[in-house]
Each structure stands twice: as structure tokens, then as C-alpha cells.
């Protein structure tokens, strides 16, 4: 098991390294690959340094961080709800964070730092609304997903209303609604990425509790685990990771659905290993999607979220069909 685990870590680490290099060196023809390397070594011109250090590297960091955050958020939600179609996108967490980002842009248009804080608030509000709705009404785990879809639809409607009435709240309406990294700002990256790293660390630290919770609440209580405390911590982690990602890349979807399900296929061990594999796979996946979005219709650029929607829609349909067959 340990040898098999190391092999998966090594393979996904290599994939991540390749993804990082492709994202860094492949792009528009404003700067050649050799000049990027020169800039990294300190021999670039002023224009080349701007492109590399203020545009390309922040974008690469943002894509890698968002991929890890959304994947781990989806993994935590799927583990806690015991439902393979649970994800921050389907449960409305992403859209709740996006709604509060727009509200902050509407009320405080020149306070970009507030955007991150409001994304966290929106993600937490929606997450706790769904939790209260499910616990207060005794919903099944499937009904929790449906309530999340309903909350998500409400948030999307309000987002569309704000953008229609106040289009100046976002620089690019389509890019925000689909999600992408074309307008990533360094100050937001420097705020959101440390938050992502903190909650990824908390997720790893509390991963053993997820394994105990898998045994059932009664068994977990019998083993001395504070079930309510750890479920609360996991919900906070999932919400904060999703909120931080939305503050960076907009309403990007399907990463928290596809990557955790892929990891389930290759990993059946403890939650700590699942979280680490989700970090590696999620970062690689989103980096590759962003690189593809930048190059597939060169010299134009597609929103990264469009690529994910094309991949994620059929993936969700296949997942639902498979789940239906298993139930039958």
C-alpha cells in the first residue's frame, strides 16, 4: 500500500511539474520561451520582467492554487455527505461567494482586498444555510444536494441581475460567470493564496478525523471523537477554500466534482492521502485547462471555465447514469 501510494505521489508530482512548465512557457507571442528563461534568471528587459513576474507567474500560481482548493473542497464535501456528486459548484458555495464578490464590487468598487473577504463570507453563508436547512428539516443526503442546487440558482439569478443593472461591477461579464485567469490581480493572489495554503494544511491535519467519521457518528463518538466539532471544521475548510478560489478566478465550476471522483478511482486509502492527491491532481488539471484555453484559438483566449463546462457537463451526466445503475 505504501509503495503504491508513493508511486501515485511521484506520478502526479511529475504531471504537476510538467503542467507548471507548460503554463509558464506557453502563451502569446509577445515574449519567446528563451526570453522567459532569461527573465527568470534576471537577464530580462523591463517589458519581459513585467510579462513574466506580474502577469505569467501570478496567473500560474492562481491556477495551481485554485485547482488545489476546489478539488480538496469537493473531496471534503463528498466525504462528509457520502455523495459523489457533491461539489462546491453544485451546492451553490461558488455562486454564493461570487454573489458576495459582486456585492462588494458594487458597494466598494475600489476596495479589491475586500473582494476576498466577501468571497469567504458568501461561501460561509451559503454553506451554513444548506447545513441548517438539511439538519433542521431532516433531509436525506440527496435532498441536501438538491437544496444546494436551489440555493445556487437563486444566487445565479441575483448575480445576473446585478451584472445586467450594473455591468461596470465586473471587467468581463462572461469571464466572471464562466471563470478564468485572464484578469488575475497580484494583490488578490497575495491575499487569497496564503488563505488557501492555511486551509489546505488544516484539511490535512484533520484528515484522520474524516476516516473515523466514515465509520458513522455513533462509532466516532464511542471512539472519543468530537463529531460536531470536526464536521464544523471540515465545513469551514470546504467553504473557505471555495471562497478563496472564487475570489481569484470567478465562478469556475466542475473542478471540485471531476478531480475528487478521479482520485476515488485510483485511491482507496486514508483521507490524508486523498487530500494530497487531490492537491496534486487539481493543480495540474486546472493549469492544463488554463493553458489549453490560452492556446486552443490563438491569438484569442477562451475563459478557462468554458473548457471545464465542456468537460464537466458530460462527466456529471455519466456520473448520474452510473449512480442510477448502482442503485438499481
Keywords:
328 residues, ABC transporter involved in vitamin B12 uptake, BtuC, 0% strand, globular
Question: Summary?
Answer:
The protein has 328 residues and is an all-alpha fold. The protein contains 14 helices and no strands. The chain has one domain (2-327): ABC transporter involved in vitamin B12 uptake, BtuC (Orthogonal Bundle).
Give me the secondary-structure category.
mainly alpha
Low-confidence stretches: none
The CATH architecture assignment turns out to be Orthogonal Bundle
CA-CA gap between termini: 32 Å
Q: How many DSSP-defined strands?
A: 0
Helix and strand element order: HHHHHHHHHHHHHH
Q: What global shape is seen?
A: globular
**What is the CATH domain class?**
Mainly Alpha
Average pLDDT: 83
The assembly state of the depicted protein chains is single chain
What would CATH call the homologous superfamily? ABC transporter involved in vitamin B12 uptake, BtuC
What's the helix and strand layout?
Elements: H1 2-25, H2 33-40, H3 46-81, H4 93-107, H5 112-137, H6 141-165, H7 173-178, H8 186-205, H9 207-213, H10 217-222, H11 227-249, H12 255-266, H13 271-295, H14 304-327
